[in-house]
Structure formats: C-alpha cells, structure tokens
Amino acid sequence: MLKFRASMIGKLMAYPDKDTLSSGAMTAIYEKASQIILDWHPQLDMHVIEKGRQCEDMAIELLSSVLGKKYVKNETRLSTDLITGEWDIFDEKENKIIDIKNAYSKKTFPIIITDGDMKLYEWQLTAYMSLKDADKAAIAYCLVDTPSDLVSSRDDPDWHYVSHLPAKDRVTIFNMERCVTKERQMLKKVKLAQDELKRILEERDFDLSIYEVDF
C-alpha cells in the first residue's frame, strides 16, 4: 500500500484549496518514483540523524522539565490507506500530540519558527491529529548536548555543548489546533498524489503493495 508519511506531506500542499497538484508536488512525486524504480535514496547527514536517535530521551526530559510535565516516548505508529505517522509524545490529558525536533547544534536551533517552516509543520501536525483524533498538536525543537563522536569536524565544538544554558532557552515550540478544513484539504491532496504515483509505477509494472511512500 502506498502511504505518505506525515512529516513530508507539506511538500504536496501548495495551494491547498485547489483540486490539483502543484508543480512542486509533482516534482516530489517524480523524484520518489525515480527512487523506487532505480533503487536509490537521498543522501542524509548521518551526524544529524544519529544525534536525533541517540538523544531522543534527553530531548523528552528537557521538554518535560520546561513544561512541568512527565512525558514518555510514544512507540506506536498509526496508519490509514493514505497516511502514516509516529509522533514522539501524546499528552492524554490535553489530547495533544507533540513531535520533537532534536536540533543538531546551536547554529541549527531555531529561536523562532519561521513562516516557511510553519507551513510545512502545520500539515505534518494536521496528519498526526487526523490519525490520532487529537484536538491539539505541537512541534518542539529541543537543544541538548551532542555526543562527542557526532560533532562534525567542520563545526566549532562550542556549538554542541549546551547543558550549561537555561533549559527554557533550549526549547522552541510551535502549537496549533485541529482544523477540519485543513484536514479535508490534506486528505484530498494526498489522494491525488497517491493516484499519480500509482499511475507512474503501474506503467513500470511494479508491485505497489510493497511500497510505503516517504518523501
């Protein structure tokens, strides 16, 4: 089944009120088709990926201390026939999803969430709320110490050691509430994208049942 990960749905959502896919969305779909057909993957910065994995618990502890909560890591992925997602935290009392972005360094930690990032995150969070039937959602950027073996030789080491700084200065949060209109727009666009990707792969006689889309 072809499914779209919540974290990347924003790439499909230019002109959300229109019943067509934008040129940017089509470019993303064509690139994914190329990855499937030719068996290749985007190059990722493994230092960044590894910090996110290794320091996940530290980031959750940091956020808990700043918000006065006791959060635990969510281990459950939910899916429909269109979308799939696994967020970091579910606050049952508030019926709220929180997804953590573990910043790699001082340089990459956002003091504010820019308008451009908000537009991408709102669709990721909309997908999460749809999957979980949640009322609220948030992206929480957290900045914790980087393990020494993951500090890039290109970086000033001081960028990576931050635990001496106030906890509140090392968390930036973008909150939003569930919007039925945005949810409908998202599901419509994802269905269009799914149909287009199916069409391309069927022309190449690929077994569509074995792929999960991850833009």
Write up this protein:
This protein has 215 residues and is of the alpha/beta class. It has a single domain (4-210), classed as Lambda Exonuclease, Chain A (Alpha-Beta Complex), CATH 3.90.320. It is 37% helix and 14% strand. It has a four-stranded mixed β-sheet with strand order 4-5-6-7, sandwiched between helices. Strands 1-3-2 form a three-stranded mixed β-sheet.
Question: In terms of topology, how is this protein built?
Answer:
Elements: E1 4-5, H1 23-38, H2 46-54, H3 56-67, E2 78-79, E3 83-85, E4 89-91, E5 96-102, H4 115-132, E6 136-142, E7 171-177, H5 180-203
Parallel strand pairs: 1-3, 5-6
Antiparallel strand pairs: 2-3, 4-5, 6-7
Helix pairs in contact: 1-5
CATH topology: Lambda Exonuclease, Chain A
The general outline is globular
Proportion of residues in helical segments: 25-40%
Q: Give the C-alpha Rg.
A: 18 Å
Class from helix and strand fractions: alpha/beta
CATH architecture: Alpha-Beta Complex
Gap from first CA to last CA: 15 Å
Report the portion of residues in β strands.
Answer: 5-15%
**For the residues shown, what is the average pLDDT?**
94
Major sheet size, sense and barrel closure? 4 strands, mixed
Looking at the chains present, what oligomeric state does this protein adopt?
single chain
Indicate the low-confidence ranges by residue numbers.
none
Total domain units: 1
Order of helices and strands: EHHHEEEEHEEH
CATH class descriptor name = Alpha Beta
Number of strands: 7
Strand order of the largest sheet: 4-5-6-7
Number of helices: 5
